[in-house]
Specification:
Blueprint (H helix, E strand, L loop, with lengths): L1 E5 L23 E7 L2 H4 L2 E6 L3 E6 L4 E6 L6 E4 L8 E6 L3 E6 L4 E5 L9 E3 L5 E6 L4 E5 L4 E6 L11 E5 L6 E6 L3 E6 L4 E5 L14 E6 L8 E6 L3 E6 L4 E6 L22 E7 L7 E6 L3 E6 L4 E5 L14 E6 L4 H7 L2 E7 L3 E8 L5
Antiparallel strand pairs: 1-2, 1-28, 3-4, 4-5, 5-6, 7-8, 8-9, 9-10, 11-12, 12-13, 13-14, 15-16, 16-17, 17-18, 19-20, 20-21, 21-22, 23-24, 24-25, 25-26, 27-28
């Protein structure tokens, strides 16, 4: 696994190390080229989740490893088993909240985990859950019998009291494949490849051509008739990949994170698009796109030949281009010769968080 971007808390590589593998650009608070994450942390990872202070790695055996800020303390470092005694099935986090769902169907919710005296609490629900997704404003869950819902926290609960959380069902008659959450909005992908959205739409992230709140899930009309297989929510922008490998994006484009400022040419528009309120195709390569992930204000995508492309806000090095400059045009990330050898015959997937990007690689059984 490789990472780059914001590393003030050591969430990519330890601040105690004088250098990371193949990284010679100076201090480690910002890492602007891909570096290999500690192998002992990244082995057998099935899911990556990260906040602006932490990285959470869910392993095949159901344990969770963390790096960066140690929740419930004022310390930095690594924790090899974040939830001892539990086999974790799913994990999700937002800026200051992490939720873990065990295979025993216990839901652990940790709000304000940077608070020194904070701790995870077991949420007691009558519903049995199969999936959880955290946004800054909304926490969305899916029950074992396919019902979609939102977790509602009692705002009157104090720091020292048990957190009271209830399940509020969301009216939705379709079979849910997966859910993605941004800071204020939600995308729902059905088993038929249709995409629905709801939540805050102030920057066009809902994709319905409007900039207001949408309280109930509705289909994105611009994607009607197109089969979608991958969805991703950024802070205030969104991305999907079709079954044909085409990338569509929409939402806030202040830093070029939607990738529409060049109209697929090398000539920038005189007045860059700030808000793209309906999905549009984003073309940057002759190859189809296999994976996409949106950070707070940047985007990363992988093509079928294994190329990694990034664009948008780059001040914390999260684009991996060897600088802290933002980039309004999708640009390929160049791995160092050593890292290129390691990733040559592998399958890749990506995860972007607020100001970081992680690339997970594994051996491709079809290549020998």
């Amino acid at each position: 696994m490789f990472g780059f971007g914001y590393n003030v808390f050591g969430q990519i590589c330890s601040l105690k190390e004088k250098k990371c593998d193949n990284y010679e650009h100076g201090g480690l608070s910002v890492i602007d080229v891909p570096v290999q994450v500690d192998i002992s942390l990244s082995e057998d990872v099935v899911k990556i989740q990260s906040s602006w202070t932490n990285t959470f790695l869910l392993k095949k055996n159901g344990t969770v490893t963390t790096s960066g800020w140690i929740p419930g303390t004022k310390a930095l470092g690594n924790v090899n088993n974040f939830l001892p005694g539990e086999v974790v099935q799913d994990i999700s986090c937002s800026c200051n909240k992490v939720a873990l769902l065990s295979k025993a169907k216990k839901l652990f919710l940790w709000n304000d985990f940077m608070h020194e005296n904070s701790f995870p609490t077991v949420v007691k629900l009558k519903e049995s859950l199969s999936m959880i997704r955290c946004g800054d404003l909304l926490t969305i869950v899916l029950t074992d019998d396919g019902h979609l819902g939102q977790l509602v926290t009692d705002s009157s609960t104090t720091q020292d009291e048990e957190v009271l959380v209830s399940f509020a069902e969301i009216t939705f008659s379709h079979c849910v494949q997966t859910v993605s959450c941004g800071k204020e909005h939600v995308l729902i992908l059905t088993d038929k490849g249709a995409v629905f959205s709801f939540g805050g739409g102030s920057r066009g992230q809902i994709g319905n051509g409007r900039l207001d709140q949408q309280d109930e899930p509705k289909p994105i009309e611009a994607l009607s008739g197109i089969t979608i297989r991958v969805t991703s929510c950024g802070g205030w922008h969104s991305a999907v990949i079709t079954s044909c490998g085409d990338l569509y994006m929409w939402g806030w484009n202040k830093d070029g994170q939607v990738g529409v400022s060049y109209n697929n040419t090398d000539i920038p528009q005189e007045v860059p698009v700030q808000i793209q309120a309906v999905p549009v195709p984003v073309v940057f390569s002759n190859d189809s796109v296999t994976d996409v992930s949106c950070g707070s204000r940047h985007t990363a995508a992988i093509t079928c030949n294994g190329e990694l492309w990034t664009w948008g806000f780059g001040f914390y090095g999260q684009l991996g281009h060897g600088s802290r400059k933002s980039c309004r045009k999708p640009t390929m990330v160049k791995f160092s010769p050593t890292l290129s050898t390691l990733t040559k015959m592998t399958k890749k997937s990506i995860h972007c968080n607020h100001w970081n990007t992680f690339v997970s690689v594994k051996k491709d059984a079809t290549n020998h």
